[in-house]
Design brief:
With 466 residues, the chain is an alpha+beta fold. The chain folds into three domains: 87 residues, no CATH class; 95 residues, 2-Layer Sandwich (PmbA/TldD fold); 233 residues, no CATH class. Helix content is 20%, strand content 40%. The strands form four sheets. Strands 9, 16, 17, 18, 19, 20, 21, 22 and 25 form a nine-stranded mixed sheet that branches. The chain is globular. The N and C termini lie far apart (63 Å). The model has no long low-confidence stretch (mean pLDDT 95).
Length: 466
């Protein structure tokens, strides 16, 4: 541990000196490395380090937060005293001992990042690059990359707990650009897990690059899609980004506690189709969003948010739980990008659980609509729950069969309207890695779902209305 027990207790008690009822020290030391090839050569090999400490104090619903990269005891003690000066009062608690809590290792690493040389990693990327270029002469540019992170976190709490967590993440990515001389189209894939270089063995990278090349080339000849309200089949895996944005963010404690979410005060109410069961699960082994402890030292939970269409839970950190209802407990979802950010409730691995329908039957149930297989992202206004998403891989559905690829389309609507319109839930659930940006910075998250049928969504395309 960075701090001795006596040092940590002294700093925490300095923060508690003017009446704060909770104090916390968060230490982060993260090393990242990235390897990129482009233009059929090595584009960059880079590394970075983020190291520092953040101290947070709570007094009722008031918060004081500060951070520093000076890790000396004197600097940290001074920071705690400066933060405590923001409150007026006398101590209401004192830290007399700290107990080190050990959690289960949910993210075992078989092959550490140091086990392969830079040359080996770049050679791995080159094989994928060559496969993409070989797919078609229309492929004009290929970017392949490998991202690695080795992070060590320590948390000391005034509740008498200290924890440490070693977090290892690995992600691959490929971006293919195709052109017919008149326009350009892209194909992208980016698998990642909380594990080591075993990911390189688990992913057939040349095949992944070829699939991205095919998407880019096929989009060159794809016609414009239809527009208007229509049935939409959402594909599995990254299709879950729509639930993540349109429904996940409004179920975070930060939105609920400020009364800005349309789901505020709706615990126990029906908010979705009875087919919908949704989770935020930070306990998934090697999940991209999984950690052994969150950023305030709590163990993650398998938190069911929606059960058979009924809202049964929110995602909560310590601060938002006390703002909503002091009887509520944190759900292990307090996260931040780095020590420079005040932590808050954030999603981990958020997904809609499997249903019973065969994906083929879901497609067959649609006479006329679209099938959205891939998404590039989108945006949502948490206060209104209105979303706009772009599906970069979308197909027509005609008489219960998948038709032809179309140009990217936009899906527009409100999360609280979409949930009740889910009429079929597939049995083919998968998850995908992503990065989510919000108040506490960019956090690693997984999104996921099985194939879903939504009876009606407003689709924005340049084609005629159906």
């Amino acid at each position: 541990m960075l701090l001795t027990e006596e040092e940590a207790k002294t700093i925490l008690n300095a923060g508690l000196a003017t009446g704060a009822d909770y104090a916390e020290i968060y230490y982060q030391d993260a090393l990242t490395r990235s390897y990129r090839r482009r233009y059929q050569k090595v584009l960059s090999v880079a590394s970075g380090r983020t190291c520092g400490i953040g101290i947070r104090l709570l007094k009722g619903n008031e918060t004081a937060y500060g951070y520093t990269s000076d890790l000396s005891f004197s600097s940290l003690l001074s920071l705690a005293k400066d933060l405590s000066a923001g409150f007026e009062g006398t101590p209401v608690r004192k830290v007399t001992s700290l107990t080190k809590k050990k959690g289960r290792n949910r993210n075992p690493v078989r092959i550490p990042h140091s086990a392969r040389s830079t040359e080996e990693k770049l050679s791995y990327l080159e094989k994928g690059e060559k496969a993409a270029f070989a797919y078609s002469p229309l492929v004009k540019d290929v970017t392949t990359s490998l991202f690695e992170q080795d992070e060590h976190v320590e948390v000391y709490q005034s509740e008498g707990r200290e924890v440490e967590d070693d977090r290892v993440r690995t992600r691959l990515a490929v971006l293919v650009v195709a052109s017919d001389g008149e326009k350009f189209e892209n194909g992208y894939e980016g698998p990642g897990l909380s594990e080591g270089l075993e990911l390189l063995e688990e992913v057939d990278f040349p095949a992944l690059c070829v699939a991205s090349a095919k998407d880019a080339v096929d989009l060159l000849s794809a016609p414009e899609g239809p527009s208007g309200e229509m049935p939409v089949v959402l594909g599995n895996a990254f299709g879950g980004v729509l639930f993540h944005e349109a429904c996940g963010h409004p179920l975070e404690g930060s939105a609920i506690s400020h009364g800005t979410s349309p789901f505020t005060g709706k615990l126990g109410k029906v908010i979705a189709s009875p087919l919908v069961n949704a989770f935020d699960d930070g306990t998934i082994e090697n999940g991209w969003g999984s950690e052994n402890f969150d950023d305030e030292g709590e163990e993650p939970t398998r938190n069911q948010l929606i059960k058979d269409g009924v809202l049964v839970s929110y995602m909560l950190d310590r601060y938002t739980a006390r703002r909503i209802d002091p009887s509520l407990s944190p759900t292990g979802a307090c996260r931040r990008e780095s020590y420079r950010y005040l932590p808050t409730t954030r999603m981990t691995n958020t997904y809609i659980a499997n249903g019973t329908s065969d994906p083929k039957d879901i497609i067959a149930a649609v006479k006329k609509g679209i099938y959205c297989k891939g998404f590039t992202g989108g945006q949502v206004d948490p206060s209104t729950d209105q979303f706009v998403f772009t599906s970069d891989l979308a197909y027509t559905i005609e008489d219960g069969k998948i038709g032809h690829l179309i140009q990217p389309v936009s899906l527009i609507g409100y999360g609280y309207e979409i949930l009740p319109r889910i009429t079929m839930v597939g049995n083919d659930g998968q998850r995908s890695a992503g990065v989510c940006g919000a108040a506490s910075g960019s956090c690693y998250v997984e999104v996921g779902e099985p194939t879903l049928l939504v009876s009606k969504i407003l689709v924005g395309g340049k084609g005629s209305e159906q």
